[in-house]
Design brief:
The structure is a homodimer of 144-residue chains. Chain A has 144 residues and is an alpha+beta fold. Chain A has six helices and six strands. Chain A is flat and about 50 Å long. The first copy, chain A, starts with 6 loop residues before the first helix and ends with a helix. Chains A and B meet through strand 4, helix 5 and strand 6 of A and strand 3, helix 5 and strand 5 of B. The structure holds a DNA duplex (30 and 30 nucleotides).
Chain lengths: 144, 144
DNA sequence: TTATAATTGAGAATAAGTCTCAATTACAAT
DNA sequence: ATTGTAATTGAGACTTATTCTCAATTATAA
């Protein structure tokens, strides 16, 4: 397995882009995120670290991290985009409670299997997929 | 099967809301949409029909149609929300070409099966789900 | 050390969607 | 039919995530 610490730097070098302190700081924060996050959250955490990186750079770097397959957008039917760190993680689906908003990550081989068949059937080359299932969690079902 | 023409009217009556000409006009346009659409598209089509319904009413009515399970949001990683008419349609997944944007709707029993298992495993009561698979269609694979 | 093309910060711009509120309207009760 | 009233509407202001612009700065190849 490649060293995760250098994956973004390598990606940038490979495409002739620069490895700047701003990009390093943003990548560091992203690597520290254990769950889903939004652009604003990165910005806030950078501020906590006394960094003065601008929002513009945060958004710009998010796009680069997406292009590098380090994060991917996960959309939860809200207005702003959520991301998740996918470095070294198994591809998974999301189960979301409509009432309390709790998010559970799960993996089901049947789903991967069905997707693989669909890609084959329509002659598509696979890139990525998202599965978002909504419902009511046990607690919220009781809470009439 | 219930008469689709009256489903929205019944829904509104049942909850003590009014059946207005504006809501009827918007529902008519929605019923005429064969594929995915955005709020703006409804607004534009209403204008073509010489209707002067405001954007506010379009957005408000979209929410009601969602609550009535007549349309549902389908999110394609873009900034604005897309909807699809689900009246009398089988639940399906989307396969999207990253290059040309082509969207294919498909159904795979393995996916329904995997989702059902996930809902059961985590004790969730099912509401809805979305599956969005992205890749490159046959044509775009060739077009290096 | 220097040249230069890429990157940055600051803040203006954009645009989808929401909110406000006075005027209008559907419809239940008379 | 008429009326009372709560719901709905249109118009446009507002919000807010994200993008854009551009002059100043900086990483890096030469």
């Amino acid at each position: 397995m490649e060293d995760n610490k250098d994956i973004f730097k390598s990606f940038l070098k490979k495409r002739g882009s620069k490895w700047t302190p701003e990009r390093k700081a943003i990548f560091d924060v992203v690597r520290s995120m254990r769950f889903h996050f939004e652009a604003d959250e990165l910005f806030f955490r950078l501020r906590q670290r006394k960094s003065k990186i601008s929002k513009g750079s945060v958004y710009r770097t998010i796009k680069l991290l997406e292009a590098a397959d380090i994060i991917r957008p996960v959309i939860f039917t809200e207005r702003h985009t959520h991301y998740e760190n996918i470095l070294g993680r198994k591809h998974h689906s999301h189960l979301i409670c409509r009432k309390c908003g709790r998010i559970i990550e799960f993996f089901r081989p049947e789903i991967s299997d069905g997707l693989k068949k669909a890609y084959r059937e329509y002659g598509f080359k696979e890139i990525d997929h998202k599965v978002e299932a909504t419902g009511l969690c046990r607690k919220c079902q009781k809470k009439k």
